[in-house]
Amino acid sequence: MTDLLTVSGLHAGYAGGTVLDGLDLTVPAGSVVALLGRNGAGKTTFVHTVMGMLRPYSGSVRLAGRELAGAPAHAVARSGVAIVPQGRRVFAPLTVEENLRIAAPRRDGPWTVERVYELMPRLAERRANRGDQLSGGEQQMLAIGRALLRGPRLLLLDEPSDGLAPAVVDQVAEVLERLRDDGISAVLVEQDLHLAFRLADEVVVMSKGRIVHRGPTAEFRSDRRRAHALLGVA
Ligand SMILES: Nc1ncnc2c1ncn2[C@@H]1O[C@H](COP(=O)(O)OP(=O)(O)OP(=O)(O)O)[C@@H](O)[C@H]1O
What we know:
The chain is an alpha/beta fold. The protein has helices at 43-51, 73-79, 96-101, 113-119, 121-125, 136-148, 166-181, 193-199, 217-222, 224-231; strands at residues 3-14, 17-28, 32-36, 58-63, 66-67, 81-84, 154-158, 185-189, 202-207, 210-216. Strand 4 and strand 5 (66-67) form a beta hairpin. Residues 5-233 form the ABC transporter domain.
C-alpha cells in the first residue's frame, strides 16, 4: 500500500521546550492508524503540527508526496487534511445546518450536507437546533460532518470519545466504522482502547514525542503485557 502521509524527523513544541522529538510516522492510504500514548506524550501536539496549527522546528510532513511542513492551516486544509478537534469546537449559537454550511464545503468534493445527514440521521433531526442544544455525541457527529465536508484525503481525529458515555461512544464508533469501511484514511488519537481497537488497522504508540511501537491492531490487542508496559493500562 502506498503511504498517504509520511512524517519524518518532526520536531515541534512550545516556548517551554520540545514536545515532538524527531517523530517518524507513515499512514498508508485507506487505513486507520490509532495513535496511543500516555497523557502528555504529545499526541495533540502531533495532530496540531500536521494540521499546520503549530509550526514545526524542523522535519517533514508530506501528503501524497507534497511537503506541508510549515504551511499554514488553511493551506494544509486545502491540500486535503481535515481535523476533528479535541473538544469538538462546534459553534454554540449556530444551528446544526449553519455549522455545516459554514464549513465551506468543497464544491468538487464527494461530501454534501445531505450526504452528511444520510450518514448521521441524528444530525438531520437536529438540523434546526443550536450547537449548544446538542448532546455531546451529537456535537461530535457535527464536528465529524464539518470535517467531511472539506472532502479530506486524510482525517485527523483527536479523541472523539472524550467526555462521552459508553453508549454514545458506540454511536460515534458506528459512524466512524462506516467511514473506515468506505476506505477513509485517518489518524485516530484515542485514550479509549476499545474504540481504538475497533476502528484501527494499526496501532502506534507514542512516548516523549517519538513513536515507540507500531504493529497490527490484533497483535497489540492480544499482548496485554506490552499494552501495560507502554500505556500503563490493564
Ligand atoms: N499550548 C501549549 N503551550 C505550552 N505547552 C503545551 C501546550 N499544549 C501542550 N503543551 C505541553 O506539551 C506536552 C504534550 O501535550 P499534548 O497535549 O500534545 O499531549 P497529549 O499526548 O495529547 O496528552 P493528552 O492525552 O493529555 O491530551 C505536555 O507537556 C503539555 O503540557
